[in-house]
UniProtKB/TrEMBL annotation:
Pfam families: Aldedh (PF00171)
InterPro entries: Ald_DH/histidinol_DH, Ald_DH_C, Ald_DH_CS_GLU, Ald_DH_N, Aldehyde_DH_dom
Active site: residue positions: 262
Full protein name: Aldehyde dehydrogenase
Keyword Oxidoreductase found: yes
Residue span(s) of domain Aldehyde dehydrogenase: 29-484
Length: 489
């Protein structure tokens, strides 16, 4: 289908072509894909679909821009990145509305949390670059030689992102990659591609030179795969599912490209016997945020049997007060699932769990009143140990509740997963909090809180939840070639 180049989405003009070398480019063969809104399954528009030629052009543009950009001073780069942040802040509402239409996540969350954080992804790393990157010289023990450690930009960074929080997850990588002096090629998700295009406009207006930031739109197979096997990329960042990560790791292996993988999870929410009940219930129900399409979600609720009855009753009651509906309504708590295929996947998980003997405490199926892609917030209990619903990532509004007896059994159950992205612990005892959190295997452990993190702290997954850590200096460790120059005395 012909690419109309520009479409209007929620009153905002979006260019649907690629952004390569500082120019808007349609695919040479005119190929497009359709982006559909999860809210009502309506077609939003046609978007250019890249193939090998467009990916090659984007990587070449980034390579061409690299010498000049990598030689700019940290202060120059920080100044441009702060302007990008200002551009995002000025367009929070537009970005929020477009992303809500495109991926169905709550407008309320986009306006209050997500888009301001997107701006922070640039501002924070601009500040960090100026303040914290200098490493004090070291000395070779007993020899007197001086060692200078420097952070040299790596080159061209390829970034591939998922649909559940597309702009947030892209900019969390783009911010530090650019701050470090690299050039970037972004391949956004084909299910929610539009805000990446708006980011290209904002970056251009902020004065980012041509070729420093490029966007190639398209599917994983046609646009993502050529990027991952490209011999001229120096870093590869992927956020998405474990099966795709396996394919990407194999594609990148011949080029020995360093990888940063942020993948799926099956995170525990561990509620100890002394937990504050209000806190525990609030955190449990918060797991329905973004219709459960959150990698960090504590979808496996584990509660000490001493308080299980009251906790379960209150979580179920509270979950039933959640308002499901159009995510553009600021009162809505739970929206729709991203695609029909994903909706069917979620329903398949729930139906198989029921067949396995699970008890449905809340929800348990499609929201028949709303229809479309709305799936009821679902809570399941009595799921057989080791069953699929307790071990596989569901990535929808589905929580399971299991009980345990005593902290040791709770920890053992929490750690009984091949994932290790996050874990949440609820307890009123600070000593117990220290002891139990130390035993949990996860990249992030939240104690009596959820989803809070400073951009200076490390983020990443253990086990199959990922490779590497980013945030603060960990980002620069990845996006730079860290060099040691040894000077004779
Ligand atoms: P996905 O793996 O299907 O797709 C992610 C991206 O990879 C998309 O842009 C897609 O086009 C691309 N892709 C697909 N096949 C490819 C290939 N062969 N080569 C190159 N690129 C390819 O994941 P999804 O369904 O978009 O996202 C959901 C998953 O992402 C869940 O598992 C979720 O837990 C995970 N996730 C993780 C984090 C994190 O920070 N750890 C954050 C958000 C989502």
């Amino acid at each position: 289908m012909a690419n109309p180049e520009k479409i209007t989405v929620e009153g905002v003009e979006v260019d649907t072509r690629h952004w390569i070398g500082g120019e808007r480019v349609a695919s040479a063969d005119g190929a497009t894909f359709t982006t559909v809104s999860p809210i009502d399954e309506s077609v939003i528009g046609e978007v250019s679909a890249a193939g090998e030629a467009e990916v090659d052009a984007a990587v070449a543009a980034a390579r061409k821009a690299f010498p000049a950009w990598s030689k700019t001073s940290p202060a120059e780069r920080a100044a441009v990145l702060r302007k990008v942040a200002e551009g995002i802040e000025a367009r929070v509402e537009e970005l929020g509305k477009v992303e809500t239409r495109d991926n169905g996540a709550l407008l309320r969350s986009h306006l209050r949390g997500v888009m301001p954080r997107v701006a922070m992804n640039f501002r924070f790393f601009a500040d960090y670059l100026e303040k914290d990157l200098d490493h004090p010289d070291m000395e070779v023990a007993g020899r007197g030689h001086r060692e200078r450690i420097t952070y040299d930009p790596a080159g061209v960074v390829a970034i591939i992102t998922p649909w559940n929080a597309p702009l947030m997850l892209a900019t969390w990588r783009i911010g530090p990659a650019l701050a470090a002096g690299n050039c970037v090629v972004l391949k956004p998700p084909e299910w929610a591609p539009l805000t990446a295009s708006l980011l290209a406009d904002i970056a251009h207006e902020a004065g980012l030179p041509a070729g420093v930031f490029n966007v190639v739109q398209g599917t994983g197979v046609d646009a993502g795969a050529p990027l991952t096997r490209h011999p001229d990329i120096n870093r590869l960042c992927f956020t998405g599912s474990v099966p795709t990560a396996g394919v990407i790791a194999a594609a990148a292996a011949p080029n020995i490209v360093p990888l940063s993988f942020e993948l799926g999870g099956k995170s525990p929410l561990l509620v100890l016997a002394d937990a504050d009940m209000d806190t525990a219930v609030d955190i449990a129900v918060e797991q329905f945020d973004n219709a459960g399409q959150v990698c960090l979600k504590g979808s496996r609720i584990l509660v000490d049997e001493a308080i299980a009855e009251e906790f379960t009753k209150r979580v179920v009651e509270k979950s039933k007060t959640l308002k499901q509906g159009d995510p553009r309504d600021l009162e809505t708590d739970v929206s729709a699932l991203i695609t029909r295929k994903h909706f069917e996947t979620i329903d398949g998980f729930v139906e198989r769990a029921k067949a396995d003997g699970a008890t449905v405490l809340a929800g348990g199926g499609p929201n028949t009143e709303l229809g479309g892609l709305f799936y009821e917030p679902t809570i399941l209990a009595d799921c057989p140990e080791g069953s699929e619903i307790l071990t596989e990532e569901v990535f929808g509004p589905v929580l399971t509740i299991e009980t345990f007896s005593g902290d040791d059994e709770g920890v053992a159950k929490a750690n009984d997963t091949r994932f290790g992205l996050a874990a949440t612990l609820v307890t009123s005892d600070p000593e117990r909090a220290e002891k139990v959190s130390a035993q949990l295997r996860a990249g992030t452990v939240w104690v009596n809180c959820f989803f809070v993190r400073d951009l200076g702290a490390p983020f990443g997954g253990s086990g199959q939840s990922g490779i590497g850590r980013e945030g603060g200096i960990w980002s620069f460790d990845f996006y730079c070639d860290v060099k040691n120059s040894v000077f004779a005395p």
